Amino acid sequence: MSSTATRRVPTSGASRPSRAVITALAISLPFAFLAPAGASTAAPTAPEPDQQQTAPAQAPHLDLGAQDLPETRNVTILAPGLTRTTITRGTPNQDFFWTAEVAVPSTSPDPDAPASALSTQAQARKVADKLNAAGITARVEHVQSPQLADAGGDLGYRVRVGQFGSKADGAETLTQIKAAGYKASVIYTGWDGDAVTSEDDRGPWNLQVLTIDPKEFKGDLTSSFGADLEKRETTSSLAAAAGALAATNGGYFVMDPAAGAEGDPAGASVQDGKVLSEPVGDRPSLVLDKNEASVQRLHWHGTVTAPGHADELPLDGINRVPGLIRNCGGTGDTPTNLPLHDFTCTDADEIVSFTPEFGPTTPAGPGLEVVLDAQGTVTAVNHTRGTAVPAGGQTVQAIGADVDKLAALAVPGKKLKVDTDLLTKNGKPLKTTPSTDVVNGGPALVQDGQLNVTAKRDGMVRTNDSNSFFYGWVHKRNPRTIAGVDAQGRTLIVTADGRQTSSLGLSIKESADVARSLGMVNAINLDGGGSTTMFQGGEVVNSPSDATGERPVGDALLVLPGRK
């Protein structure tokens, strides 16, 4: 007998009260998926296991696009208290088309300043006029973004050319634009995310939702980075290795070796109660404990001290290449100490510690590296960096002006104390147990039941690029992974497919709308784009957007079965 049962739940713009029931392994369960507080969940006679059920449910539709769009939810019980819901919403929109978006040259006096998707009206008009003079019919479009908690509004102007039935149809136009002296790319207008009348916005969208009810589910919600931090693995391989019932991709990580150690978390990370990576400023993270989750803003406090020494050295980070701070948000960094997403800040003077989880050897290079055994005793002081971390021990690296400072504290045979604390909003260390994991994310989407999208605070706004990063990353629709908790304490993890004509993806504002309409009272955005993946039943159940297929990631969220 199968351990799962599935039902189909069609919905529309109007909620219609009715009853539904699902069974799995002869367990009768009420339909409680995102039911509004106080809604009836009474169950009639149970159907046979594996029987497909069609039952409208008292559940609001997604706050996404026009209110009257068709929406269908297929719910599969994976275990008592654990469901996966497939949501399809909307219909193909014939008003969308492919078009060429022109990179507008910068107006900066710097000759090396890059072109950008957005510019001033005057500069966009100038480019369009030159294209028109070359026989290429160009249009200038004003881009306005929904207002968020600390960003949004008027973003600027873009230049576009043509309307094509497919991406390939735009190739000749790209050649013409290039001959006129400009760069361009062919994009699908359904991915724009512009502030349009919702009645004109008809999708389609495809989402997957995992719901974990800690009152019923007896397994664990945890995370995994695989064999070590510095290598990337696919979500499906991490899930299969752990025997997970289901899994999604997790937090941000280093992809480019020039930005640090590939696969390294680019934000806070805790696994099995052990701090493995420092936060980016005070960005929000998903904190896991057994089968429950919470969204918390965490910030960093790390020190290196030695008995008998008054000096206390700041520890800049943990398990990353010294001098390279992906997503920024540290101290003494260039160009900023604030979070700056998908950007690598630098710091010539740093102290960074390493644990055995990092990998076979620590990053090599000039500087100092102190080796500590499991008791915190200095066993070696190396005048170059790069060594194996002893089992149960750690190493501490220093570069630049911090080399001499660390050398003054590190005496072979003496103790060295390394403190790595994640502080909560009240300034106290996060309490961890062997069942505590932390996965980084951002921006915040929902706080205390209200939309609170903090794109600027969490580093998704750049002041020197004509809003182009915000336009591509926040404003436009992309694949997204979202996590949060509802008022009943259930954890919800959502993947939304994107960068496809069959599923448009979500803007960050739409991600927040979806999170709240699914009942989340606190929610954050996790890593998305080509990373967005959901695994269940031995296969990837969403449609990752990378042309090469499922992307190797830094870590994954895993839902593990209970111990027998």
Structure write-up:
There is one protein chain. The protein has 564 residues and is mainly beta. Helix content is 10%, strand content 36%. It contains 6 helices and 38 strands. The strands form 9 sheets. It has a 10-stranded mixed β-sheet, covered by helices on one side. A 5-stranded antiparallel β-sheet has the order 12-38-14-35-36, covered by helices on one side. A hairpin with a 2-residue loop joins strand 30 and strand 31. The chain is globular. The two termini are 19 Å apart. The N terminus is likely disordered.
Strand order of the largest sheet: 4-1-5-6-11-33-32-34-30-31
Large-scale geometry? globular
Give the helix/strand class: mainly beta
Name the average pLDDT: 89
Rg, nearest Å? 25 Å
Number of helices: 6
How much helical structure, as a percent, in the residues? Answer: under 10%
- Report the span from N to C terminus: 19 Å
Query: How would you classify the quaternary structure?
Result: single chain
Task: Furnish the topology, listing elements before pairings.
Blueprint: E1 5-11, E2 21-24, E3 27-30, E4 53-54, E5 71-79, E6 82-89, E7 98-102, H1 121-133, E8 138-145, E9 153-164, H2 171-179, E10 184-188, E11 205-212, E12 220-224, E13 233-234, H3 235-242, E14 246-249, E15 269-271, E16 274-277, E17 284-289, E18 292-297, E19 299-305, E20 312-314, E21 317-318, E22 324-328, E23 339-346, E24 350-354, E25 365-372, E26 378-385, E27 394-399, H4 402-409, E28 417-423, E29 436-440, E30 444-447, E31 450-451, H5 468-475, E32 480-486, E33 491-496, H6 508-517, E34 520-525, E35 534-536, E36 539-540, E37 552-553, E38 556-560
Parallel strand pairs: 1-4, 21-24
Antiparallel strand pairs: 1-5, 2-3, 5-6, 6-11, 7-9, 7-10, 8-9, 11-33, 12-38, 13-37, 14-35, 14-38, 15-16, 15-29, 17-18, 17-29, 19-20, 19-28, 22-23, 24-27, 25-26, 25-27, 30-31, 30-34, 32-33, 32-34, 35-36
